[in-house]
């Protein structure tokens, strides 16, 4: 089992809440949940839900980041169990995150009990809805560098680099994405690996444990996500072209939140990437290689 980390989008949002104490904005009516093709049934195991209500291409087409955000935690788990890691994405992906109803997290203060009192006093009564709004205003998504096996997070450049983290802009990687300059912070390593939610098959893992070994690491900012900070680990699975569902973990394998990643161009192209991650059928690629080596040795 891989050592868990935490979700980057949350590390950023929490840092902003601590430093800014931002207020709540106006609420907008929630979008409808997924259509009737996507079925859920309480009490079913991962194997049972997958066999009874398989996700066809038509069912997957009903799923959107907005509709998934309306699901309760048990529904998120049943949806995730029917997905595969498929392949590591590439390029920029727009992100959003939410705290599903029925999850173990009831208030943000309980997540950060180990923080100094002066910090907890600022966030203990903060509402999860407020944290979500603050985070989504500043966290824009993730950029995957597939060939390098590295990921960086898109952050609102103007509002965070100098005003929040007091970082010299010359230290920060930036990129213009969709006509907007963003900071690229909190680097992570990418690979296919064990899912903490559903061990029957792999997920794409976004691992922040060794962020300090990645080029461009900024100690006084990026440590928040690393092993000496919030110990972050994300995992994602493929929903349909242009759409991934992610789960965010922090200390001691604790699930904190759910997030979605969306790429409009990939969605429009409609191409399902070739599978890279283990789908649970047969041995893993590494196990196959070991078996081949053993057979060669016997010969």
Describe the protein.
The protein is about 30% helix and about 25% strand. With about 300 residues, it is an alpha+beta fold. The chain has one domain. The longest helix has 14 residues, at about 285-299. The chain is globular and about 55 Å long.
Q: Count the domains.
A: 1
Please state the average pLDDT score: 80
| Separate helix tally | 12
Radius of gyration: 19 Å
Q: What is the CA-CA span between the terminal residues?
A: 33 Å
Structural class: alpha+beta
Main sheet overview: 8 strands, antiparallel, barrel
Instruction: Please bin the fraction of helical residues.
Output: 25-40%
**Overall number of strands:** 9
Characteristic terms for this protein:
globular
Structure summarized in a few sentences:
The protein has twelve helices and nine strands. By secondary structure, the chain is an alpha+beta fold.
